[in-house]
Structure formats: structure tokens, C-alpha cells
Design a protein that fits this description.
By secondary structure, chain A is an alpha/beta fold. Chain A folds into two domains: 51-153, Periplasmic binding protein-like II (D-Maltodextrin-Binding Protein, domain 2, 3-Layer(aba) Sandwich), CATH 3.40.190.10; 174-436, no CATH class. In chain A, 68% of the residues lie in helices and 7% in strands. The longest helix of chain A has 37 residues, at 223-259. Chain A is elongated, with a radius of gyration of 32 Å. In chain A, 29% of the residues are buried. Chain B has two domains: 2-219, Rossmann fold (3-Layer(aba) Sandwich); 224-268. Chain B has nine helices and 13 strands. In chain B, strand 11 and strand 12 form a beta hairpin. In chain B, helix 2 (90-100) crosses helix 3 (105-118). Classes of the chains: A alpha/beta, B alpha/beta. At the A-B interface, helix 1 and helix 8 of A face strand 6 and helix 2 of B.
């Protein structure tokens, strides 16, 4: 099979390129860094903070003893006047002075911090919240309300949406945000794959045309075989890249976590989340875990994965056939703009509509966008995690593959004529004429 | 026995008639020259033979049988606009192109190494094409064209881009290929090489055949009975050159030997170049 020889060449020449190796092996390092950096930073956060001595000049006397020393910050209550305190800061005795002017409860409370160097955000935040709590507490007491009652009345509400189905026993909890995120990530992947590898197909065609090897090749193989060989070969390049990214990222993750005290990193992380959950909502860990499980179970990953594969392949083939046709029609890359712009517009439409699609996954615009083959790969991926009726998925995939066959056929007609045309500024009209040849 | 027969082939692009009722017969083991000005339809005809383009009507017979997709392996084609993948290594690329012609990888490798030795370019095997000069690339292209030992070879302007030494090398190879049994179709503007290499030629202009035949016959057909005469007159005035038109060479010789001693007497045959210019300008009127 000659198409096999073509696929092999298209694949090997690209995979052996230095730029391919570089991107394939460096990107996982970047991904791994993204995964580890926040944890590492969190673990070492104290190291980045300088120790601060803050003098507190509290003329209101509302906050005496309220500012607690921490690992980094020490609060010293002083009774000098402000000018004195400022001088002490200048001399370096204190890093800063917090000045709270005398006030009464019903007036707005303002405070000032004087310092030579910028005060860290965490410190000013701490001062802010402390003062707020104290004032609120005082105000409640002044109105004769027990602050403990207010605390007890503080409730957090979560509305659980549950989707029913014909079958009485099947009810699914759904979590909009997570489904939207999953859909968005998958749609973005398809969008970028089509763009990056589709334009590689186009560049490959232009290369063969400009270095004039094309005529030698099509005297040995049919133009259609050459075009398909290129499209399939580049598809394998893309798959290889994604596979290697996945494997390498996991590999680096494994290696790094065995060297670093990741246990600490993640236990710190968990500890923090625990604290947060304890403080914010009165739920226990068990409940958090069940919720996470619920989210994961609420999505039919098998369907999502299959759909991803179908739309990935269908979308890539449909668009790369169009990109190949464009490549055959022009003499160099700078002439491609007038043809590439409308094609990329088709692909961008569902991305622009992504919020609409996520807000109303069953609205008519969402259904239409996920049926039209040019927008369906991206649009359907955005909808799929929310659950889409099976007839819609089947119709959409069928439409996509039929269109892909028709377009490959049309593209091969344009391609056949285009690759032998030189030195001609090609218009859309001209291209439609080639289809009829 | 004709290896290639083209019968009444016509091709139209839109409203432009590119080939009109072209028929040629190329005898086995001969070199056939396809001549014509730019835009005459030579490339279209060659592309039809390579099944890159389909004719609107007419028939092509190869070895007595209608041309079919499998004949790709029987044809070697060196196009006028030719090139190679710049970033690919020479040897690897040559193997790829040979494989596309249906050759087995190992066999292609063996034969290519032989040809590379013969052309003294074995050291380029692992070089990238972009490191080679244009003339070097042409050598590689020539090898790739003939590597699968096709029975029909089609060369479109094979000598463009070669220096005189390599032109000679190539001519030698082309003649050798013919002697080994290949039938060669040869399109060029280089009339000197046509006279040197071709057994038969066809001249086309604006898609129409305007002349066909063997080089010898055509020259005979277009001779205008002029003779180049050198003689030494008896009066001792030294060698004299004359160009004379005469319907009767015997009469002419008799006249000359009365005046002096004949040194040489040659018929002046028109060059293919003259015939070409003459006919094309006439048919353009």
C-alpha cells in the first residue's frame, strides 16, 4: 500500500524534527511545574515572608490585645505620639506603625500604617479582618445582641440540582461548574488540535508545491492518496504528542513526588482545606468526600471519552481536508489568509458561544451548533458532560462523518488541480471552478 | 513494434483547447523528441501519459494495451519543474521515491547505492538535500527517475540546470538506457541535443501536430538543395568557398572541376532549429 509509505514518511519526518522533540519533552516539565509549584510555594511560604515588628498606636483603645503575634509578625503596643512613632520607624526600631485614631463606635473607623517598605498584603489583610471582627462584635454588643446567636444563625445554603429521567430509579445529581470546566477543557483541546495540526497539513502541502516535488510524487501516486497520507500521518503525530505528554507528565510527577516531601506538601494542602471547610461550612470531611465522589459519578466518562475520540477524529479530518485544499491553491503561506480566516471563523463560533452553551445546554442554539458539522466538534464537547440525548449525539456524529467524506472528496478535487497551478492569485470563484474539472 | 501509441488525444481546459487530436507512435527502444514552443501542450500531453491528467477523448496504448494505473511502475518521469524535500536526507528520500514507484525497500537501497557510486555521489547519501547544489540535486532526480528500470522514460527538459560535463554524462546515460531496451520520450528546447539523440521527433504548436517523422527524413524533406563547395582555381588564386543552390549536383560538380580542383562538396541540410523556427512562425500566422 503506497498510502502506508506516505503516512510513514509524513509521520517520521515530523517526529524526528528537533522542534517536535523539544515541545514534546519540555511541555511535560511545564505541566509538572504547574502541578507542583503551588504546593511547594505553599509549603515554603513562611520563608518568603520577612519578619515584621509592628508598633500599634491605638488611640481608640478598642483593639488592645486584639492583634496576636504570629510566626512572622510581632505587634508591640506603644503610647508615644505619632511623630515619635514615625521617627522610631525611620530609625529602624519598628518596621511599621499602625495608627488607629480615637473614634466612637457609630463613626467609621479608619487606620493608617506608616512604614518605610511596602507592608505585605497578608499583614494588611490580617489587620483589616481583625479590626472588622472586633468592631462588629462591639456593635452587636452595643445593640444588645449576643454575638454567639449571630454566629449560630450564619448558614450556608447549597442547592443540589438533580436531573430525573423516564426511569423512576435513575436520578442524577449534577454539578454545573465541574461539567462546564470538563467540557471547556475538552473543547479547547479539540479546538487547538484542529488548528495546530490542520495548519501543519496546510504547510506540508505548500512545502511540496513550492519545492516542486509534487509532480514527481503524483506521477507515482494519486493526489488523493498523497493528501490522505499526509492528513493521516499528521494525525498520528498529534496522537503521539498527546500520548507522550500524558505519559511523561505522569512520569515526572511520579519521580518528583518520590524525591520531594510531597507527603508534607499535600498534607499541608489537605490540612488547609480542612480548616477552611471547618470554618466556612459546618460539614465534616466525610461529606466533602461524598460530594467529590458524587461529582465524578454524575458524569458518564465512558460516553465523554468516546465522544471526544469521535469528534477529535471527525473534526480534525474535516478541517484538515479544508486546510489541504487551501494549501494546494496558494503558492506561499502569506497568500493563505483570505481562505484561512473564514475557516477559522467557523471553528471560533462555538468557542464564543461557550457560556451560552454551558448556561443552557439544551437550548435550540446549543442543539443547532452541535448538529452543524463545522461547529459540532467543539460545541458538542461543551455539552457532552451535561448529558446529551443519544439521538442527538448519533445524528451529530453521523452528520460530521458524512460531511467529512464529502469535503475530503471536494478538497481532493481542488487539491488535484491546485497543486499544479503556479503563479496565479487564486480567488474563491476560481476554486469552485476547479471542483467541476 | 511501437511501445507507445497515442491515438487521437484531445484535451480542453474550460474553453481553451490544449491538445487537438494528437496521435504519435513511438517505436520500442527509440528516443522520441517532443518539440514545440512554450504553451504548445507538451506538458499536458506528458501529464496525460503519467495519468496526472485525463484526456477528454482518445486512447493511449502502452505495449499494445490501454494505459492503466498499474503502468505507473513502467514509467519513469522527470518533470520540467522538479524538486526534492529540502530537509530530508538524500538517500532516505531516494528510497522513499523509489518505494512510491512500487519498489521494495531493500532492492531500492541496493540499486540506489550502485547508481550513487556510478555518478560518484556516494558521499552525499546522508546529506540533507538543502546542502546540495542545484546540479547535484538534478543528478539525484535523474537517478530517482530511472531507478525502477521503467520501460518508458519521459524526460521534460532534462538538461536544464546541468553544466556541460554533466550534460554529457546524462546524454551517455540516456543512450545507454535506450540500448538496454528503454523507450524514451524527450521534450526539450535544446535543438542541438535533439539532433544528437532523437530518432524521431514530433513538432506541436497550439495543441496541433504540425510535423512528425524521423530526424533524417525531416531534414531531407526540408532541404533547399544548397551546397557548400570548396575548390582551388587553376589560376592559383587560392581556396574559394561557395554556397550554391542547384537542382542538379552533378551538373554543378562538372562546372566546378572545369574551373579548378575540387576540395570538398557538401550538401547543406537545414538544422532542426531552423525547421522549428520556420514552421512555428508560419503556423502562428
Amino acid at each position: 500500500m503506497k498510502i502506508g509509505i506516505i503516512i510513514e514518511r509524513e509521520y517520521l519526518t515530523r517526529v524526528k524534527k528537533r522542534s517536535f522533540l523539544l515541545i514534546t519533552f519540555l511541555a511535560p516539565l511545564f505541566f509538572a511545574a504547574l502541578m507542583f509549584l503551588p504546593a511547594i510555594l505553599m509549603l515554603n511560604s513562611e520563608k518568603f515572608d520577612e519578619k515584621k515588628n509592628i508598633a500599634v498606636l491605638d488611640e481608640s483603645t478598642l483593639f488592645v490585645g486584639k492583634f496576636k503575634d504570629t510566626d512572622v509578625n510581632t505587634f508591640i503596643y506603644i503610647e508615644n505620639d505619632l511623630a515619635d512613632a514615625k521617627n522610631l520607624v525611620r530609625e529602624g526600631v519598628y518596621d511599621g506603625v499602625l495608627y488607629i485614631p480615637g473614634t466612637s463606635l457609630n463613626l467609621p473607623v479608619n487606620a493608617e500604617i506608616y512604614s518605610m517598605k511596602q507592608i505585605p498584603m497578608t499583614l494588611s489583610d490580617y489587620i483589616n479582618t481583625t479590626m472588622k471582627t472586633v468592631i462588629e462584635h462591639q456593635k452587636l454588643l452595643a445593640s444588645g445582641i449576643d454575638p454567639d446567636i449571630v454566629k449560630a444563625a450564619n448558614t450556608s445554603i447549597y442547592v443540589q440540582s438533580i436531573r430525573m429521567s423516564e426511569d423512576e430509579n435513575v436520578e442524577k445529581k449534577s454539578y454545573g461548574e465541574f461539567e462546564f470546566l470538563l467540557g471547556l477543557v475538552l473543547a479547547m483541546v479539540i479546538y487547538f488540535v484542529i488548528f495546530i495540526f490542520g495548519s501543519q497539513v496546510m504547510r506540508g502541502v505548500i512545502e511540496e508545491k513550492t519545492n516542486r516535488i509534487i509532480e514527481v510524487i503524483i506521477s507515482s501516486v494519486k493526489p488523493f492518496e498523497l493528501m490522505m497520507g499526509k492528513i493521516i500521518g499528521i494525525a498520528f503525530v498529534g496522537l503521539t504528542q498527546f500520548l507522550l505528554w500524558g505519559v511523561l507528565t505522569l512520569g515526572i510527577y511520579g519521580i518528583v513526588s518520590s524525591f520531594l516531601p510531597v507527603q508534607d506538601v499535600f498534607s499541608t494542602g489537605t490540612a488547609m482545606t480542612e480548616q477552611i471547610t471547618e470554618v466556612s461550612a459546618n460539614t465534616d470531611n466525610q461529606e466533602v468526600l461524598t460530594k467529590a465522589f458524587d461529582i465524578i459519578h454524575s458524569i458518564n466518562f465512558k460516553t465523554v471519552l468516546w465522544c471526544f475520540l469521535f469528534y477529535f477524529i471527525g473534526g480534525y479530518f474535516l478541517y484538515s481536508a479544508m486546510f489541504a485544499a487551501v494549501g494546494s491553491a496558494v503558492d506561499n503561506e502569506t497568500d493563505t489568509q483570505q481562505f484561512v480566516t473564514p475557516i477559522s471563523l467557523l471553528l471560533v463560533i462555538p468557542m464564543i458561544c461557550s457560556t451560552i452553551l454551558a448556561n443552557a445546554p439544551d437550548s435550540s442554539i446549543a442543539v443547532w451548533l452541535s448538529m452543524i458539522p463545522f461547529t459540532s466538534p467543539v460545541a458538542m464537547m461543551l455539552r457532552i458532560p451535561f448529558g446529551v440525548p443519544i439521538w442527538q449525539v448519533v445524528t451529530s456524529v453521523a452528520l460530521l462523518f458524512v460531511t467529512f467524506i464529502i469535503f475530503t472528496w471536494l478538497a481532493s478535487k481542488i487539491y488535484r488541480t491546485g497543486i499544479l497551478m503556479y503563479g496565479k492569485k487564486v480567488s474563491w470563484k476560481e476554486i469552485f471552478k476547479w471542483i467541476k474539472y | 513494434m511501437n511501445y507507445l501509441e497515442i491515438n487521437n488525444v484531445s484535451k480542453t481546459y474550460g474553453t481553451k483547447k490544449v491538445l487537438h487530436d494528437i496521435s504519435i507512435k513511438v517505436p520500442q527502444q527509440s528516443i522520441y523528441g517532443l518539440l514545440g514552443p512554450n504553451g504548445a501542450g507538451k506538458t499536458t500531453l506528458i501529464r496525460i501519459l503519467n495519468q496526472i491528467t485525463m484526456p477528454d477523448s482518445g486512447q493511449i496504448l502502452l505495449d499494445g494495451k490501454p494505459l492503466c494505473p498499474n503502468d505507473i511502475a513502467n514509467i519513469g518521469y522527470l518533470p520540467e519543474e522538479r524538486g526534492l524535500y529540502k530537509k530530508m536526507k538524500v538517500g532516505e528520500q531516494a528510497i522513499y521515491l523509489a518505494q512510491l514507484k512500487g519498489m521494495d525497500r531493500k532492492e531500492a537501497d541496493r540499486r540506489l547505492r550502485h547508481w550513487f557510486m556510478k555518478f560518484e555521489i556516494a558521499s552525499w547519501w546522508d546529506k540533507k538535500v538543502e546542502e546540495l547544489s542545484k546540479g547535484m540535486q538534478q543528478k539525484v532526480q535523474f537517478i530517482v527517475t530511472v531507478i525502477h528500470e521503467p520501460k518508458l522514460l519521459i524526460f521534460d527538459e532534462p538538461f536544464s540546470g546541468f553544466d556541460p560535463i554533466n550534460v554529457n554524462l546524462l546524454k551517455k546515460e540516456i543512450l545507454e538506457l535506450r540500448d538496454k531496451g528503454a523507450t524514451i520520450l524527450f521534450s526539450t528546447h535544446n535543438m542541438a541535443s535533439v539532433e544528437e539523440l532523437c530518432d524521431n521527433i514530433m513538432l506541436i504548436n497550439k495543441g496541433e501536430k504540425i510535423l512528425e517523422g524521423s530526424v533524417y527524413d525531416i531534414k531531407q524533406q526540408f532541404k533547399n538543395h544548397s551546397y557548400d563547395v570548396v575548390y582551388r582555381p587553376f589560376d592559383g588564386s587560392g581556396e574559394t568557398h561557395l554556397t550554391v543552390n542547384s537542382e542538379n549536383p552533378n551538373e554543378l560538380i562538372r562546372e566546378i572541376i572545369e574551373k579548378g580542383e575540387l576540395v570538398s562538396f557538401n550538401e547543406i541540410l537545414p538544422s532542426i532549429n531552423d525547421i522549428f523556427i520556420n514552421l512555428v512562425s508560419k503556423s502562428n500566422k
